[in-house]
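Bench notes, afternoon.
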Amino acid sequence: MKRDVTPPLGRERLATVIRQAGTVLRPGDVAEVLGMDPGDAARLLYRWKQQGFLSRLTRGLYAAVPLESLGAGQGIENPWVLVPILFAPGYVGGWSAAEHWDLTEQVFRDVCVLTAQPVKRKVRVIGGTRFVLKSISESKVFGLKPSWEGRHKIQISDPARTLVDVLDDPTLGGGARQVADFLAVYLRSDFGDTTLLLEYADRLGNGAVFKRLGFLLEHQGLDPDGLQAVCRSRLSAGHALLDPSVASPRIVSKWRLRVTENWLVGRD
């Protein structure tokens, strides 16, 4: 019986596709590089997958498997390349962006993504990577910096937008304690910009951002550029939770904020 193996020409074609389109492939990529019909390209991808040269990430999306025959141990070195492919319009944000900008020394395995697409499942595992998703309106996709990985343009929230996002939803930063640490590092860094921080917070339009920001600044004894007073002037009605993931019975009236008891230890 004749074995179904890819001849050298087939391996060369796959190597050509990977060099030009990257290690994450769709039928359209193969069709463009090889000048073939998309249907034939889809069948070729499936054949390469069956032969073990590609792994299937999700429907119509494949990744190169490390192959000595391709000359360079190919694989998904950066799972962020999947973000513009699967979740556009959207961006890498939250704890992932905080790690990218060195706002934290903690290493996060999951990738935090904010997307204007509807989100049916908050967590998706693709190619062995967990993507934690949050749906936002397309009008709130701003304050981003591009990063290129081959042909893939990955959008990442800039440092100020990263801070505003985790103040808007502290679960995106791993909780209020982490957010407090991000904030302190941001304000000490070369890219710490209180004007831009306020601009983004105003644009996002969630009054809880100013309540959390003001409280965390006061708690850490920080007040660059009179930022606490600015936050006080923007307080909205009602009481917000400092950390929505934690039951918070105590009220800090000054900041219209509900907190846990441990945040008040040592407070006058």
